[in-house]
C-alpha cells in the first residue's frame, strides 16, 4: 500500500479522536503516561499542550522520546517520536492547527501552556474489525 493511503488512514483516525495517551520517560528512566488532547498536521506531526508544572513537561525536558496511543476499538494508532517544544513563528502556526480542533483550549493560554510537536519515528495503524486485521506501518528516516 502506498504511503499516501497509509498517511490518510492514520490522519483520519487521529482526527476522529480528541484524546490520546502520551507516555514519557522520567529522569530516573521510568515511564509515565497521561491523557492529552492531540491534533495532527498533514505530515503526521502531532501537537499537544501542557503546563510547565505537570510531570510530563519535566520529563520532556530531560528526555524527548515519547510514545502515543490514539483510538481503541476497532482501530488504533501506535506512534513513537521525538518531542520539540515550540517557540517563535513555528509556535503560532502549530497553535492555529491545535486550536482549530480544540477551540475551548484557547482559554488556557493565559495559564502559560506550553506547546510541543512530536516528530514521528514509527507509526503502526491496526484495524481489528477486518479479517485478517489491517496493519499498516510507516518508518520515518532519522534526522
Distance between the terminal alpha carbons, to the nearest Å?
Answer: 24 Å
Helix content: 25-40%
Going by helix content, strand content and strand pairing, the class is: alpha+beta
Structural domains: how many: 1
The main sheet comes to: 8 strands, antiparallel
Output mean pLDDT: 94
Count of discrete alpha- or pi-helical segments spanning 4 or more residues: 3
Order of helices and strands: HEEEEHEEHEE
CATH domain fold name: Pnp Oxidase, Chain A
Strand content: 35-45%
Q: Give the CATH level 1 class.
A: Mainly Beta
For this entry, what is the oligomeric state of its chains?
single chain
CATH architecture, please? Answer: Roll
List how many beta strands DSSP finds.
8
Low-confidence stretches: none
Query: Nearest-angstrom radius of gyration?
Result: 15 Å
What does this structure look like?
This protein is of the alpha+beta class. It has one domain (3-139): Roll (Pnp Oxidase, Chain A). It contains 3 helices and 8 strands. It has helices spanning 3-16, 55-62, 88-101; strands spanning 19-25, 31-37, 39-40, 46-50, 65-71, 75-85, 114-127, 134-139. Strands 1, 2, 3, 4, 5, 6, 7 and 8 form an 8-stranded antiparallel beta sheet that branches. The model has no long low-confidence stretch (mean pLDDT 94).
